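Hey everyone, long-time lurker, first post.

I ran two proteins through the pipeline my lab uses and got sequence/structure pairs for each. Pasting them in order. The first:
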Amino acid sequence: MTRPSDPARAALVRLVRDEGRRVLATLVRVTGDLQLAEDAVQDATVRALEAWPRTGVPPEPRAWLTLAARRRAIDLLRRESARTGKEAEAVSLLDRGDSEDAPEVLRDDMLRLIFTCCHPSLSFPTRVALALRTLCGLSTVEVGRALLVPEATMTKRLTRAKEKIRTTAIPYRVPADHELPDRLLGVAAVVYLLFNEGYSATAGEDPLRPALVEEAVRLARLLHEVMPGEPSVLGLLALMLLQDSRREARHGPDGQPVLLAEQDRRRWRRDLIAEGVVLVGAGLRRCPDRPDPYVVQAAIAACHALAPTWEETDWTAVLSWYAALLSVHDTPVVRLNRAVAVGELRGDLAGLAELDVIPGLEGYPLWHAARAELLLRLKRAGEARTAFAAALALPQNGVQHAHLSRRLDAAASA
């Protein structure tokens, strides 16, 4: 068989990567060893990428990967000259190969992996890095770039985290009810990071990774089943559903991004919007005294989802929600999004003034792009070209880069 074309190869890599995450979760549950599970899954994915172009993708890719990873894990464990009782038990479980790979169990396995990554004994940056590496499937280089940390530093951080999980015997299980509050915010952040990587990929030629979006939504629904009354969970699920409702309208036939103001709202999924709005209402009723960040962000998303057109968006309500959000979650990115809303309500000059006083976003391409668009609307084409060029110089996915290049050309001809 001939070597697959680059698009076919890329699709195969995505399939192996996305299925491998679930296989990893199962192996960690069985072996109780994150490093062992990662080594076994890595070996299985390499074998798949070597074999499948010749033999074709099997009918059940996950089952193929699971079997290959199990066998590799058994080999690795049996090579130990003096296995502990726990390791011997792991070999026994792996040898069994019973029905523990059913989809229902996998749901629990992935949730356990998230809770393991978000154990309160790990620092928050470490939790995020470990989750990006294990759940999103990003390389160590990509994780370091996303968190603005050198690769060598990130490698040490991940190694220390895995070692701490192993040596301190952090349990691989969904915690008891009384332990949930200490982990919920970390878990919610990880699930939303997973969603964001799928919703707007940070690298590569594909702007969307639908498998990650669907996995994040599935995990949020599972969290909602476990903790139905938690405002953060209600808000998280609502926010993701409202954002994902626009999926089909976010890119044109040529794959280029379509801005929110220009999207065909008839292509938005009204069922997801309706479900999201109900969840927002439930979340607001459960946090009357102190707003929850996810609930408030979902309320902002609902303002956009319910507006018949961009021009009919209730920008006064949007800014009011941003004020509430800043009171509990004041970040540069939140201020960036608020500045865009200020520009729509009070004019481009007011929006630009808000953008220009936000610190710490010089390395964030969307800040430069937002400034460039407002400068272009203010007919300050030279400054807009400089801002677009600054955005283009920063890491981003290929489609976004192409879009900014076209906008730079538009500024050049203005």
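...and the second, right after it:
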Amino acid sequence: MVLWIVLAALAQFISAGIIFIDKYVLVSKSHVGKPIVYAFYISILSGFVLVLVPFGLVSLPSATVLLLSFVSSVTFISSIVLLYTALKEGHASDIMPVVGGVSAVATAVCASQWLHQDLPPAFIPAFGLMVLGMLLISHFRLTTRQKFLVVFSGIFFGVTAFLTKLIFLETSFLDGFFWSRMTNVVGALLLLVIPANRSAIFSGYSGSSSGTKGLVIANKTLGGIAGVLTLFAISLGSVSIVQAFAGLQFVFLLVIAYFLSGWFPAVLRGEMNPKGLWHKLAGIVCVVLGLAILFVL
């Protein structure tokens, strides 16, 4: 049990850093910073799993694995388009707690209904504390449009995690990892069918500097590492608890914002607003307490 807990926590630390780089690109880079463009490149970069093919590590999928992979890719791409649209407009430390809270709830509901997983006895009160902490951290500063974006982004993220667990129950880790990533590539290519998307994606690529492209690729490489760690944790342990570990990401987000706000004021302005700082700190206490209850009791 210890291994998958460590992997889940490490993935959340890496993801916190990735979020701020995403925010920087979305706010500062007008071409590649369009949410649909960013979502395309994130999904298309999943094709790196092709390196597994020459080593004979991948086998043909069953119809069930292929179907689950395609559906999970649809929910994944939908979630990141909604998330990056919200991030472009609002503050990461407000948006991510709500997305994480909704995602954790959605995953727990799906897992309890269809996986019949045995959750820790203290799961419900711990879960409630974590959700309360997420809401306090977000300080309820979201507009109606942003609430819509983050709620549905969280639901899609939660369903994606649940479908990923189903894939790992049907096949090996490497096969499940490969096919769930390759269908992301197919989903990205399908975005090109819509003319407006195609125009934005191609202009975003040609209009961005090599430095920006390198930053996006490097950041998405980190995202790939965090994703592998999360998927491995899901394959080894409880998908509900792995999703609940999103609470740690919010703690990491605030720590990073505190230390880097002076370096990137245009990107991090408002993340450490003194007016909402006590709400955020109270939220952190709730999140940490929820995690402690979850694994101690």
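Reply from user beta_strand_b:
Welcome! Quick read of the second one: Residues 154 and 169 are 23 Å apart (CA to CA). DSSP finds 13 helices and no strands in the chain.
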